[in-house]
Amino acid sequence: MTAPEERSIDSAAQQMIDRAQQDEIGLAWDRYEEMQPQCGFGQLGICCRICHMGPCRVDPFGDGPQEGICGADANTIAARNLVRMLAAGAAAHSDHGRDVALTLLEAARNPDSGYQIRDPQKLRVIAEEYGVATDGQSVTKMAEAVAEKTLAEFGQQEGELQFALRAPAPRVKLWREQGLMPRGIDREVVELMHQTTMGVDADYRNIMRQGMRAALADGWGGSMIATDLQDVLFGSPEPIRAKTNLGVLKEDHVNILVHGHEPTLSEMIVEATRDPELVARAKELGAAGIILAGQCCTSNELLMRKGIPSAGTFLHQELAIMTGAVDAMVVDVQCIMPQLAHLSERFHTKLLTTSPKTKMPGVEHLEFHEDQALEIARQIVSVGVENFANRDGQRVQIPDEEMDLVAGFTAEYVYTLLGGRFRPSYRPLNDAIMAGRLRGVAGVVGCENPQIPQGYGHITMAKELIRNDVLVVVTGCSALADARAGLLQPEAALEMAGDGLKEVCEAIGMPPVLHVGSCVDNSRILIACAEMVAEGGLGEDISELPVAGAAPEWMSEKAVAIGYYVVASGIYTIFGTPQNVLGAPELHKLVVEGLEDIVGASFDFEADPIKAAHMMIRHMDKKRAALGLDEMMYEQALPAAAS
Ligand code: NFS
Ligand code: SF4
Questions:
Q1: Which positions ≥6 away from 338 have C-beta within 8 Å?
Q2: For the segment 256-310, what is each residue's pLDDT rounded down to a tens digit?
Q3: Are residues 377 and 472 in the same domain?
Q4: How many domains does the chain fold into?
Q5: Using a 6 Å cutoff on CB, does residue 333 contact ligand 1?
Q6: I need a surface site. Which of 44, 88, 256, 548 has the fewest CB within 10 A?
Q7: Three-class SS state of 456
Q8: Which of 229, 240, 236, 305 has the alpha carbon at shortest distance from 266?
Q9: Is residue 28 part of a domain?
Q10: H-type helices in 35-168, by residue range?
Q11: Is 444 helix (H, G, I), strand (E, B) or coil?
Q12: Is the pTM of this model over 0.85?
């Protein structure tokens, strides 16, 4: 069994891992160890279960079968497997986007829904993009029309997705020429499933092409719709102070955790925890009040809009229950470990599922419906409050650790931050890059994975990048990992930044690591890149910008979808652990090299976060040189930090 310090670099997490080891409770890390050795065929991507003649596998050493029973070779098999991951990831983000659009429709049509339009200005901008009449229109009429227009794009059969036209013109042209322009969101995912079923496409390049089209339908479609309509409904985030880590749970309070991805329910739970009757009941039971905290991307949503504290990331979900202080854990969709059902039984924690898409045997299901949102939220909070009475004080052990952070920098906010309210513009950012004070911008995003000590990849990489004058934007679990390490505290982080970056950040009043949201909010990074191109001086397309992306600790299918829409948008991206392509030499070569010729960017795989950071820096320097900027030569970079 590996020591807690090898499992997470966060000391609060280590305390809970230690507790689990003493109590002989298995966590994800233990199950990972029990799983060793993991199946090599699966890891290399060359196991096929697509039809019932199989399962088939290709022998990576060359002396066994080199093709499946149907004759599919390693490249075909691995490409199909990979893009089917991508399809599921794109479906998850996009179905989330659909639910937000349906909520907007509910808000527009049902005055009693409890939902409001919190950002009518953003609604108007989107309405204009979609050609919806805005003059003299009421907010609810506009909202209804925008909801209908966006919903129609899921089932759209022909044409192009409106938001994809937000990309720079040369990028749109390239997508059209390469057959990558997404038509309808559902259509691209369905077509990808069709194309990869038994006996259809045997050309790995063509499979990857449709994979990228489906990914773009996610990034510039489903995810972007989720982000933008959430801003319309719940308000566009602005920088806000909050706290994170397990110490946000309080021994003397009712603790309710919301875990998952969609803010439609959790926003209502925020309201319900403030309900005077429920607060009074909590006090009657001896609690000082009700604490609501988030986990995973639901946490990012609530953090950046409401300052609701975050109890952590993906690998913190079991650890939170290990505190013995969680009275209710409410989950919606995505990244929810089925093991929670068993773990919660060993404590008093009441686990509640709420989505018709996410149920667990033996777990109470309190189904959420948009039209009775607030009432259901109250019932959920009430379950947590009543369960406080069942808490065993002897078993409560909350690590005394909290960290301050600032979250909530959207593409629009950075716009006003840079230029001021009266002359919003990306000019200062572009100027800083052109002058070399800022070397470039990196997006560090994605999950956690027990294959890597929790937080090590994200935090080490972010520190190395800012030390080398790279502005870092973060989302998802990466953002929350950095937050735990204090990297989202503007003052502390500035101390770690290189002189150029420090100067720029101080002049603008912005931290060197910007929390830009949840995983669907990676769409905000696409928009920021499009804005940088539009501002001028850094080339005509996203692929010319000195920017790079990374997912150092990825695990989810959603990360594959994100990776491919980012690369297909022209941004070089590094994955910490390899995609499952190593058993398919030609596909592997396409992924790490050949995509460059098609979309102007490709992937790399690198497990060492410091090496990976320097690969990103080298890439930025190459782009700077191509732009004719007074390039900072890679040789002048600081030597890699001892880690
Ligand atoms: Ni993103 Fe968010 Fe975290 Fe990974 Fe899961 S919570 S949507 S998938 S694990 S970053
Ligand atoms: Fe085997 Fe081909 Fe069927 Fe895959 S599709 S399981 S390789 S026969």
A1: 360
A2: 999 999 998 999 999 999 999 999 999 999 999 999 999 999 999 999 999 999 9
A3: no
A4: 3
A5: no
A6: 88
A7: helix
A8: 305
A9: no
A10: 40-44, 74-109, 120-129, 139-155
A11: strand
A12: yes
